[in-house]
Design a protein that fits this description.
Layout (H helix, E strand, L loop, with lengths): L6 E7 L27 H10 L12 E5 L3 H10 L6 E5 L5 H12 L7 E6 L3 E2 L2 H16 L3 E6 L10 E5 L6 E7 L4 H10 L2 E11 H11 L1 H12 L2 E3 L2 E3 L2 H5 L6 H4 L11 E6 L3 E2 L4 H7 L8 E3 L2 E4 L5 E4 L4 E4 L4 E6 L2 E6 L6 H10 L10 E4 L2 E8 L3 E8 L7 E3 L3 E9 L2 E5 L2 E5 L4 E4 L5 E4 L6 E9 L8 E4 L7
Parallel strand pairs: 1-2, 1-4, 2-3, 3-11, 6-12, 14-16, 15-17, 16-18
Antiparallel strand pairs: 4-9, 5-13, 6-9, 7-8, 7-9, 8-12, 10-11, 18-19, 20-21, 21-22, 22-29, 23-30, 24-27, 24-29, 25-26, 25-28
Helix pairs in contact: 3-6, 3-7, 6-7
Length: 482
């Protein structure tokens, strides 16, 4: 058996997490949420993969595949945990996981290397890090010998929301994959549990980059060719790598499972499964979040400012205010500053129906939270009326907003903390606490923080149109003028 010299973590950081609304939004999806502990799911995934190093395993900086809109969220959350990505591969449009993994494989072999790719979604939870490492080390050594290895979770209930893997005993420590089954009905899942030999598909794959490229070219040459074309037309901006936009849009959308994995049994590609018994969950809905959180003796899980009396088997998640519950059971209650979800816990996956309704009604609550994170800091829309909007804005030390103007609104700024460097037309001024200024409609302006502490201001917008698309960016250090 060969020993791998290099392991390349690949984190697939897409998806919108609609079943975890209202905490998960399109602009701040579930992988960036701290649902358990102080780290987001994305940060937990990065730490798990970076912790795989061993005597025979060299783990390199991760490749992150994400969307253009989430690039700063991803890189900032990695910075918070001391991880520098090898690259952030930015998909201009969603094309599912097969093209995403093909992009990562092309990046991994760019300099003549052929590392073992350890590929994981960014939105899973694992309770037992030691068991995860043992399963992954087994998978990595098998993959170094040319196998495709997928992690399979030992099922503990008849779950209909997961795909299944049927595996048979083979040479230890991995099993031979016989076939894949896509989300069977409850009767079938009960039969699987009774028979044994069936595992949940965790969506975690371990294989050499060259093996993936061979497999995608064998089974889906159309995806291989179009992704190569997009990669050939890529542009690079620091850690951000953008495949060709037009070429990427032409790639057929398909998942890793459908495009390759389900076609491997019986083919020329060796596909094996490493059993995983590590308290795994994909946290796909609020019911799954309830199942992994600590509970009181009555089965209740509470996060945030919650008071409850005589409740059973209920999840309450409070973000911005007190949530009080009396005499309820089997509920999910999730509060955010602009939305409240109350659902039967057994139907928590149907939160996505609310997201669909919001989209149909052209409401914005499925897109962004009231508090919106930006690469320079954040803003919180705290009040608004017919012709005004009030925001609280925080700018990181040394950061600045774009040089911009508005066609439909004027702005009043009051500094409440720190120092603000303000460009307004051909003038520059420095404001400190309790000082204010006025930005006339149509005037070119910029807000910057020259200090060493966060800058906070209160902004009052006035005008006939106050939406975020009334921003004309003239210069921007975050390349948002493209």
């Amino acid at each position: 058996m060969t020993h791998p010299n290099k392991v390349q973590p690949v984190i697939l950081c897409g998806g919108s997490g609609t079943r975890l609304w209202p905490l998960s939004r399109a602009g701040f999806p579930k992988q960036f949420l701290c649902l358990m502990g102080s780290d987001s799911l994305f940060q937990q995934a990065a730490k798990r993969l970076m912790g795989l190093g061993a005597e025979t395993i060299q783990v390199t900086d991760p490749l992150v595949v994400t969307g253009e809109d989430h690039r700063f969220l991803a890189t900032e959350q990695l910075r918070e945990i001391g991880v520098t990505p090898a690259a952030a591969l930015l998909e201009p449009v969603a094309r599912n996981t097969a093209p995403a993994l093909t992009l990562a494989a092309l990046a991994a072999v760019e300099n003549g290397d052929d590392p073992v790719l350890v590929v994981t979604p960014a939105d899973q939870a694992v309770a037992d890090a030691g068991a995860f490492n043992r399963a992954m080390h087994d998978a990595i050594h098998q993959a170094a010998d040319g196998a495709i290895v997928i992690l399979g979770v030992t099922p503990d209930r008849p779950e209909t929301g997961y795909g299944y893997i049927q595996a048979v005993v083979g040479p230890a420590p991995t099993l031979v994959v016989e076939r894949f089954v896509e989300k069977p009905d409850e009767a079938t899942t009960r039969q699987y549990l009774a028979e044994g030999g069936y595992y949940w598909n965790a969506g975690v794959f371990v294989l050499k980059a060259s093996i993936w490229l061979q497999a995608i070219e064998n089974f889906r040459p159309d995806i291989a060719a179009t992704t190569r074309a997009a990669w050939a037309h890529r542009s690079t901006d620091a850690a951000f790598v953008r495949p060709g936009k037009v070429e990427f849009a032409a790639i057929p959308s398909d998942s890793v499972d459908y495009a390759v994995m389900e076609r491997c049994p019986g083919s020329c590609f060796s596909i094996r499964m490493a059993p995983l018994d590590a308290g795994w969950s994909d946290l796909g809905a609020w019911g799954a979040v309830w199942s992994v959180l600590p509970k009181d003796p009555q089965g209740n899980a509470y996060v945030g400012d919650v008071l409850a009396a005589d409740c059973r088997n209920t999840l309450a998640h409070a973000t911005s205010r007190l949530v009080a519950l009396v005499g309820v059971q089997n509920l999910v209650v999730v509060e955010t500053p602009d939305a409240l979800l109350v659902a039967d816990r057994s139907r928590s996956q149907d939160a996505k129906c609310i997201v669909n309704a919001l989209q149909q009604k052209r409401r914005e609550e499925h897109l962004l939270h009231r508090k919106v994170h930006r690469p320079w800091g954040w803003y919180d829309s705290i009040d608004e009326g017919g012709r005004f909007k009030v925001k609280r804005i925080q700018v990181k030390p040394g950061a600045s907003l774009s040089l911009q103007k508005h066609h439909h609104r004027a702005e009043h700024w009051v500094v409440v903390k720190g120092a603000a460097e303000i460009t307004c037309g051909d003038k520059k001024l420095l404001l400190t606490e309790n000082q204010s200024t006025y930005i006339p409609l149509g005037e070119v302006h910029r807000l910057a923080n020259p200090g060493s502490i966060p800058l906070e201001i209160i902004e009052v917008q006035s005008g006939g149109y106050l939406c975020e698309d009334d921003i004309v960016r003239l210069e921007d250090q975050y390349d948002r003028t493209r």
